[in-house]
Design goal:
Structural class: alpha+beta
Helix content: 40-55%
Largest sheet: 5 strands, mixed
Oligomer: single chain
Distance between the termini: 49 Å
Number of strands: 12
Radius of gyration: 22 Å
């Protein structure tokens, strides 16, 4: 790898212990060693200098890639010239078994058509309509945790997965998710990530389309399990639409919205593809962020008590007010800081559609362009105390300046996540609902280890203790 040498940045010490962070690889490793590390975990396969480099170039006999931390390059790739840097087909190869041709991985005219159909369902005014479903899912999740809030150590990842999946089921299909379904989907997603679906023969080799892609049996089976569940939901909703009995929820709106240019709706399989990415982007990523947020709150009792106090003042458990969202400023800051330290999607992969230049270096057509929120959010040049947990930074001028140039949990530009406002309503609400009822503490003997395949998760889960919180335990 070749690096530019950026200037050193100042640091401001954090007031709580540093959150866990994967150890970087040695500076120099063989290509074979790098591929083995990458196959195991994207994050620990990278060298430490990426946290202070403007750009890095990586060459192999098969491809060249450029990781960009320079804000000007990021704007060029994501905002100014997105048509010159489409989603990489290497990413497409790894996610096809699960996501088919969903909006997350398509390009060009196909992607534009999908956005024209999907975007109206996520207009800002829709949040108020789906807010009661989020509220009910949060209440149900808190009730489930009551059985485990006795000081035992539990893995919070499946619990947050259940809550986040419940939100998706209620907002998409007007159905609370059954415990057996939630567990099945969580297990299938976990198996899918463990099978390393982003790595296959086409991930590194420029193979023609006609060459068969070698994917593991576990990858195919876990993807089939998830997509089979989705097909059942889509078929049931299609029947309700045909008989005029369908509820007015997100699924109905998306399935009945016609592309204003072609006049066509999504086909059955296209809808299965789109629901697949809603499950991944709206459930898997939210669940990961919530689990890491609970870990960070356990790491910092001061912020945990501050959030709990805010929640007890702002939330009336008997009344569902959308205005509650505006009162959860601490919860929002904690959730934003969580996605800075543990962005659910750690890297965005693009491909140069034509030759160009990055920082006086030639970028050939077909080169891979990596935008890494994981490294950008912890970059030593852009953030004070980049590895520290400090939700208060979001109220400071320095924090706001850093966020403007180096904070991309939902990407940016034309391909910004259409559900970003949804996530920023759901996440703080669920955190507040849980913290007003429970205190979380660390399992000191088993700290989590962040790893990334599809999303950033704990290698062996995220293990915490829950105990009931009494009103006098929260402070302002």
């Amino acid at each position: 790898m070749k690096f530019d040498n950026p200037r050193a940045a100042s640091h401001q010490p954090s007031m709580c212990p540093k959150p866990v962070k994967p150890a970087p690889r040695p500076e120099r490793v063989s290509l074979f060693s790098y591929l083995l590390r990458f196959r195991k975990d994207i994050l620990s396969a990278q060298p430490v200098r990426l946290y202070r480099a403007w750009m890095a170039e990586f060459r192999t006999p098969f491809f060249r890639s450029f990781l960009c931390n320079d804000p000007e390059l990021i704007d060029r790739v994501l905002s100014e010239r997105p048509e010159d840097f489409p989603k990489s087909t290497r990413l497409f190869e790894g996610l096809v078994p699960l996501l088919g041709h969903s909006i997350f991985i398509t390009n060009g005219a196909e992607w534009q058509r999908q956005r024209r159909i999907i975007d109206p369902a996520f207009e800002s005014g829709r949040l108020r309509e789906v807010f009661p479903a989020m509220w009910d899912a949060a209440v149900a999740g808190g009730d489930r945790l009551a059985e485990m809030a006795d000081g035992r150590v539990i893995d919070v990842e499946p619990q947050m997965s259940h809550i986040a999946l419940d939100v998706i089921f209620r907002t998409l299909f007007s159905l609370p998710v059954e415990d057996s379904t939630a567990q099945a989907v969580f297990a299938a997603f976990k198996a899918h990530q463990a099978s390393r679906p982003m790595i296959n023969s086409a991930s590194f080799l420029p193979l023609p389309r006609w060459v068969p892609r070698l994917r593991s049996r576990k990858t195919r089976e876990s993807a089939w399990q998830i997509r089979d569940l989705i097909r059942q939901l889509v078929d049931a909703r299609a029947e309700q639409i045909a008989t005029g009995t369908a509820p007015d929820d997100l699924a109905t709106r998306i399935m009945t919205t016609r592309d204003p240019e072609s006049g066509f709706c999504f086909t059955r399989e296209e809808m299965v593809d789109q629901v697949g990415i809603f499950l991944l982007a709206g459930h898997e990523t939210s669940a990961a962020a919530l689990a890491w947020a609970l870990y960070l709150l356990a790491l910092s009792p001061k912020w945990q008590d501050r959030l709990a106090g805010e929640a007890q003042r702002a939330i009336d458990p008997e009344k569902i007010y959308f205005s509650t969202v505006s009162k959860l400023k601490t919860a929002r800051a904690v959730f934003r800081e969580t996605m800075r330290l543990y962005p659910p999607v750690p890297m965005y992969l693009r491909e140069a559609a034509c030759p160009t230049r990055f920082r006086s270096r030639s970028v050939p057509k077909g080169a891979q362009v990596v935008i890494s929120p994981w490294h950008l959010h912890r970059h030593e040049l852009f953030w004070q105390d980049p590895d520290g947990f400090d939700p208060g930074r979001w109220e400071t001028p320095a924090g706001r300046d850093s966020a403007r140039i180096a904070y991309l949990p939902f990407s940016k530009g034309a391909r910004v996540c259409p559900g970003s406002a949804f996530a920023m309503t759901e996440g703080p609400l669920i955190l507040a609902m849980l913290m007003r009822r429970y205190r979380v503490s660390l399992d000191e003997d088993n700290p989590p280890v962040p790893v990334a395949q599809l999303t950033v998760r704990g290698r062996d889960g995220i293990r915490l203790r829950f105990t009931p919180r009494h009103p006098d335990q929260a402070c302002a």
